Every structure is written in structure tokens, then in C-alpha cells.
Input
Amino acid sequence: MSLLPSVGLFTTLCLLYGCATSPITTAQQREAYLQQFIGQTSQSIQANLDLSSIDYQQVQSPALDNQTLTYTVIRPITIPAPMAQNPADIDSGAVPIQITPRAQSYDVNLQCKIIFRLENNITKSVHYSGRTC
Output
């Protein structure tokens, strides 16, 4: 009997579980939210942008120059670290060790930059730097 199919199934289940514990907004929802700021001034964006509504946390003050308004953000996600139990231990009457939920996962902060391109202080487009946006 090959162990490879079992490992593949286990990996797939872990990935699906990881997706279930990720933030709830999709990339399309984040994109749609940020696109609504095109045509607005940098001051309007700074006053109205709510990064937490799209699962981002701002890590520093926005950087503003004549051509761009740049936000450096992180998107925290939790990645599960499943622990397999040995069925022989359960059948033998061994008491399973209780593990706290924190020990079964680890947190990762994915960092990226949101860049609003400006012309005469009016946003013309929004771009991203980093693959985690």
C-alpha cells in the first residue's frame, strides 16, 4: 500500500482548511473597494480609506509625493499546523494530549504596498507592490 495518496489527501485537506481560516474578503472585493477611490483627491482618500474593511492593517503613515499616495499594509492570516494522531494510540486507550488552538496554527502577516497614482492630486489608478495584495 502506498503512502503517497494518503499524504496527498492530507495536504489537500490542510490547504482547504487554511483557506477557510483566511480573511473573509476576496481579492476581487478588495480590488472593487480600492477602485472606488479613482477620481478622488489624496486628501479624500486619506480621510475615507478604511483598510480594515478589506482585511488590511496599515503599518506606517501613508507616503505622499506629487505622483503617488502609498500605503504599506499587512494582511494577517492564520495557517493551521494540523497534528496527526496515531490511531494505534487511541485504540490502546492512551489519553490524547490536549493542545491549545494557538499551538495548532501560526500567524503570518503578508505585507504589500497599495499605490494610488496621482495627476494634479487626483487619483488616476491604483496599483499594488508585492504578491500578497
About this structure: The chain has one domain: 27-89+98-129.
